[in-house]
Amino acid sequence: MSAAQDSVDFDRVIPRRGTGSLKWDAAAERFGAEVLPMWVADMDFAAPDAVLADLQERLQHPVFGYPGNEGSMLQAAADWLAKRHNWRPESDAVACISGVVPALYAAVRAFTRPGEAIIVMPPIYPPFITAVEDNGRKLLLAPLIADDTGHYRMNWDALEIAVRQAKLLLLCSPHNPVGRVWTAEELQRLGTLCTDAGCVVVSDEIHADLSQHPHYPFPSRFPRSILLTSAGKSFNLAGLGGGVSVISDAGLRRTFQDEVQRSQIQHTNLFALTAMTSAWRHGAAWQAALRQYLSNNARFISEYLMRELPEVGYRQPEFGYLAWLDVHHYGDDETLARRLLQAGLGLNPGASFGPGGEGFVRLNFAAPRSVLEEGMDRLRRALHR
Fold first, then answer.
1. Which of 10, 73, 91, 362 lies most in the core, judged by the most C-beta atoms within 10 Å?
2. Are residues 107 and 37 in the same domain?
3. Which DSSP helix (H) or strand (E) runs through 373?
4. What is the dihedral of CA 2, 216, 238, 370, to 10 degrees?
């Protein structure tokens, strides 16, 4: 148990170039050396002091053999779900995975055969689409619907047709990139629809801890489903990998674990075990401060856009640190990409999130306010060219 106390300073700028960072170092190759990267979904903040202290303590032992303490992390995960989201799964429902995306791929193979249909709701995190296509399954789209304010909802007409044709639905909850935390009513309706049709739901809930609204773990209401999560996004530990699956239904759990074993993704590495256990046990206060800082950053973006770029469509996200910006008034995607590069700003193009993403960009605002201000100034210069 760590005795470290967090000294939270999210305004501190921590240089990340030269650390092997995908977000910063690979950005130089992708966008150019002078580009400010606000794309990949990791944060420019230090991990919690308690996590750093526990990792340092483990590093003092010079042998890094195979870990055997997975039970501690699984218990910490269950305790965290109970404390943060008011749901305690049974102990045998929680298991290690090497990462959420590998587990998403494994679920596709476990519950469908090549050529069978899987439901995805774009615009959505790209691995939801590639998990289907890379495994030779049929992509069945139920695109989200947005109103004039940028508020997205599920496409019930499309879903009611799709669940009769598919054995599996991949749910992003909360939904990246559109910023929605699904309500209890929405999840109840979706769960009932899928249960009645015999369609299994795999729910990626890796962003749930950073929700600004109540989050409802999908299996807490519908046991015949799979929850995938990790401390990676919410405590800035993404580079360590690892995570957990939570499956209450014993039959579903056996089917999934068989594929996890075949795919050899049933373990979490030594340092991820240490870090995630520490985060879930000791990181609540740090994360509460983080959520407040991110909320303030989201509000800053809203005020900046109203003042400087009123034609950009933006609705403050209900979770996390990803701004989904409607920039279609400023040109087509190719023109926008060129303008952003010329202004020195690296963002995710909306089209990479599938149908419905055209004319949008995703901006990661998990950065010190001074960095965010510079990023917004670069966005203004790009769009005013």
1. 73
2. no
3. helix 369-383
4. -90
Q: Spell out where the chain has E strands.
A: 36-37, 94-97, 117-120, 138-141, 145-146, 152-153, 166-172, 200-204, 225-229, 243-246, 322-326, 345-346, 348-349, 360-364
- pLDDT for 4 equals 60
Residues 211 and 251 in one domain: yes
260: tokens are: 């996890």
Which parts of the chain register pLDDT below 50? none
Reported residue count of the chain is: 385
Tokens of 338: 């060129």
Give dist(CA 94, CA 92) in Å, integer.
6
pLDDT for 2 equals 57
Instruction: Of 342, 294, 237, 274, give the one whose Cα is nearest residue 10.
Output: 294
Cβ–Cβ < 8 Å for 218, 93: no
Q: Specify the 3-state DSSP secondary structure of 361.
A: strand
- Let me know whether 320 and 196 are in one domain: no
Within a domain: residue 211? yes
Residue from 232, 176, 177 nearest 209 by CA = 232
What CATH code is carried by the domain that includes residue 171?
Answer: 3.40.640.10
What are the structure tokens assigned to 48, written together?
């919690």
Q: What is the reported pLDDT for 50?
A: 98
pTM of the model: 0.96
Whole-Å CA distances, 191 to 194, 241, 269: 5, 29, 33
Distance CA 356, CA 334 (A): 16
d(CA 365, CA 214): 22
